[in-house]
Amino acid sequence: MSLHSAGWREVSRAAPVFAALGDETRLALVARLSSDGPLSITRLTAGSAVTRQAITKHLDVLATAGLVSDVRRGRERIWELELEQMEAARTYLEHVSKRWDEALDRLKQFVEE
Amino acid sequence: MKLHNSTDRIEKEIVLRAPRSRVWHALADAEQFGAWFGMKLEGAFAPGARAHGQIELPGHGNVTVEIAIERMDPETRMSYRWHPYAVESGVDYSSEPTTLVEFQLEEVAEGTRLTVVESGFDRIPAARRAEAFHMNDAGWAEQLQNIARYVAS
Asked: Which one of A9, B29, B36, B134 is CB 3.0 to 4.6 Å from A106, fit for a cystine?
């Protein structure tokens, strides 16, 4: 493995993520979404000293870095961690990958017999 | 394991101790393809043709898989599109994006090197991917039994 080239690319691509997390409010938002799951802007703002408008701005910064995403449900925007979606996508791919391994093993038997 | 962490494609490579023509027929002949893949196929493989396969998944009954052949270059490459993991009966997958499966054959000293690339997963709805994953926990046990039966026969 070439740590120098590939490793550096990984790190530099992650730079916007680190920048987005370099703020106390945004870090708190990520922690909250991580523990409580998808939440509406109303629930995210409740009990906070920060205004709804400011929270929305912070969420937009996180979304640009690919850390969170939102879906519209009725008149509300529901925010969730993008990482969970990434994780689901990766797990799915591992399953499809395993299925190909099995299929190719059967193909090997089929053509080599 | 690739470092770039792509969630869009799967790439496999295997060396088969068989001549290229033998491997090609196992891919290009719908009946032979079905035999090792584990499904009953109707229709012949040809560029632009659609073949329909029945996969028997105990607990889910027969599930229909549609294979839309795109390219067939004899003994070199073959590609098709399908709905990956379209294993829930009663769900119409036809309006959803497909993935592209590409087989590539290459002659090597030991026989034939076969490369398989399946791509386009990022366009598959996230909900569908999550659902397929849950379903397959049960499906895999059955699939393993199928393989055991095939090997024993």
From this structure: B36
| A96 at interface of B, judged by CB pairs closer than 8 A | yes
b vs e for A40-50, b when ≥16 Cβ sit within 10 Å of the residue's Cβ?
bbeebbeeeee
Nearest to A92 among B4, B116, B132 (CB): B132
- Contact by Cβ (8 Å): A44, A80: no
Pairwise CA distance, residues B88 & B85, whole Å? 8
Per-residue pLDDT 10s for chain B (153 aa) are 333 447 788 899 999 999 999 999 999 999 999 999 988 898 999 999 999 988 766 665 677 888 999 999 999 999 999 987 665 666 677 788 899 999 999 999 999 999 999 999 888 876 667 665 554 444 434 444 444 454 444
Out of B36, B118, B136, name the one closest to residue A95 (CB).
Answer: B136
CA atoms of B79 and B68, how far apart (whole Å):
9
Residues of A in contact with B122 (CB under 8 A): 89
Q: What ipTM score was computed for the predicted complex, to two decimals?
A: 0.75
CB contact under 8 A, B132 and A10: no
Using left for φ > 0, alpha for ψ between -120 and 50, and beta otherwise, residue A21 falls in alpha
